[in-house]
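Lecture 7, part B: from sequences to assemblies.

Below are the input chains for today's worked example.
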Amino acid sequence: MAHPRLTPRVQRRAALAASGWVALAATALPGGSPARWIPVLAFVVLAPGLALLLPQPLGLRPGARLEALALAAPVSLSVATLVATTLFLTKAFSLTLFVVVLALFVSVVAILPGVPLPAATRGAVERDGARPSRTRTPRFRVPPFRKRGAGGGG
Amino acid sequence: MQRQGPAPVTGSGVPPQPSATDRGAEDRETSERAAGERDTGGQETAGRETAGRRTAGPEAGAARPDGENGRTGGAAARGRLTAALRSPDALNLVPLLVAGALWLWALPGIDFRSMDEFGLLDRFPLTFYAALAVLTCGFVITLRRAGTAPLWPATYCAAMLVALKAPPAILYDTVRYAWASKHDAIISRLLDQGTVHPGTELSGGMSAYDQWPGFFSLDAALVRAFGVDAAASFINWAPVALGLLTVPVLILVYRTFSDDWRLVWTGVWIFQLANWVGQDYLSPQGFSYLLYLTVFAVVVRHFVLPGSAGTLRDRATLDPAAAAVPPPTTTRQRAVAVLFLVPVIATINASHQLTPVMLCASLFALCLTRRYRNLGLLAVSGLIMLIWNLTMGRELFLDTLGTLREKAGDLLGNSRPGFAGDPTGPGPELVGSANILMVLALGGLAAAAVLLRRRLVRSALPLLLAAAAPLPMFAVNDYGGEMIFRVYLFGLPGAAFFAAAALVPAAGAASRAATIARRTATVALPLTLVAMLAGFLPSYYGKEGMHYAPPGETALTRRAFDRAPEGALILAATGAFADSYYRYDHYERWFFTEQEVDENLRMLKDPAGYLSGGIPAGRPAYVILTPTQGEAVIGEGYLPEGGFDRLGKALKASPLFAVVEESRYGLVLRYRPTTTG
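Predicted structure of the full complex, as structure tokens:
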């Protein structure tokens, strides 16, 4: 297509990529005000992990959605910790640099496909909005390991 | 792929339309669950759809006579109301609203400023306890529909977390807990200096925080990003925040081993109540524990080796509540997952000393199963730990290695909590008893499940191994008297899961024993949850008197530090008081009762002489004694009852010490050796 459509998935990626720059803008607000700390906290705690996990090519199953939700915060905080630690160790820490590095990370990673954790994509069903109907037969191939006994816990 | 109940995260209770590929599995699942719900819930319905049908009648009826006949309209409205009140959602919502109202009513009545020997226990109003009891009842009710409406138990779990841990965050006007205040001081110093000095020796083992600065760097960055003065402005919310982040990861772990949402949520609930060891404050341990669970969750979900499941995917051989082993992953997939985990493992290593060891122990324990024999991940974790320990953490690492020879093998010594003797006074004694009873209850329930539900143990063996993995740490080190609490903490996820398994019998089995088990559980589950709540409260809030210091006391402490010249020796009975590490790189500290009780009894015979004997010649020295320390030395059993007051009086009376400041917030004395000649 010559003009990529603004599908919900593209919108989500754009929102993730923008969240860091919004957080950066929020740091210009007076210290301690909710308009400042809420977007900054939400960005640091969620955005890097969601950017790494969420844009899955085939959408996510409910189990994988739970996984993305649960892992987003610890992974985000890990990335933020490593960035902050590196900046402090190199005596280069400044608030702007910290947020800019994270925002750049999120912007780049949001463009890339999500980390293919097996449970995230296996037997994936398109999410709401990505397709008009949920009941439509999936177009993607069904991985061979779907053929197994009842149950499953991956 | 994990087999979820329908729409586990949508909260609508309405299953999404299954795709063609999923339909078979969904059908099986629905029939299994329906059977389970019939058995456990008695009048269980198929979920919200049924509720919708129930309410549809009166609604349809109301549409017709509207405007036609007022009496009919009124009857229809009453019918609608009755139907709404009888709906499962109303049944779930009402206890939540009642508990919320009771809790909000209780909050202003929590008299934390006048805490005595029972901490907050006798300062919580009855309505607070009532709110917690109602929440527990509501949670048990939501379990009946946990499979179709998992958001309800989730809401109750979050509500319980907030109800239990938010009061100090909302009420206290100072930093709760001396160690949190210490971490606040570390963050402030990091911001002040802009970097860390891992090679510089600081008294009291404080250089370790420069050698593992990860967590403090994150906090320092957040302090700047929020534009606040110090971490003190958000520090008291850490238990709530860490809890809210930990629960989803815990669910992920439990869902890997069980398809039964009732078991999963009961496990989470028990985990919250059994997690009384107080490691959830703003600390590297609390943070790295979350990351440890994250690594564990990813490993059990994505690191299953091909061909290792055997019969563990055969529904006929599995416990009815168990989940089949996750699908196997290829070497490439596991390699990607290792890369994904590297930042998390690196953060654990940059933040905390003990958690990487526990992580390696758990990964090693998992390698004992054929399912999770991932030597590559174990090697990567070990390598990252070794690299950090040999570079940033070199000093402490080598020191610890040096002490291993004397501490290794001393099982009794390493499992001893602190230096202290027995706690003195009814409050601390109650806390001690509650702690022991909690451990026994949790251990007993978990052991019962391990013995009685062998098939569940087979499929959830990795969880059991991970729970047991920290135990050998007793043979290695005492971790400053903390090892017993840390071993408990790391064993808790597995223990809570199996304890829940003892209380939530498998649904669906038709044998007589199974029926008896289910009937027993109907009574045992709420009773046990209430009993665990009763155990949690003294364990967590029973010593609160030593965790809260009024602003006047912290101001007195800071004044005392500011008055002392650079390099002075600051003496205090214990370090467990707010701001004890204020500007810690400028002073040396001596917490003189943190030693064997016999030595303290000797000290009490002549406190002034004892202390002056320990102060180096020519060193300016100050003594700070605050009421919080008085609570702490009794709570920890350092001094006998009345010992702290005797200590203060003796020092005031001694010519070796001059009173600098005295008020109800504490006593500050200056050492004056010249008067002795």
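Note for the exam: DSSP finds five helices and no strands in chain A. Keep this in mind when comparing with the next example.
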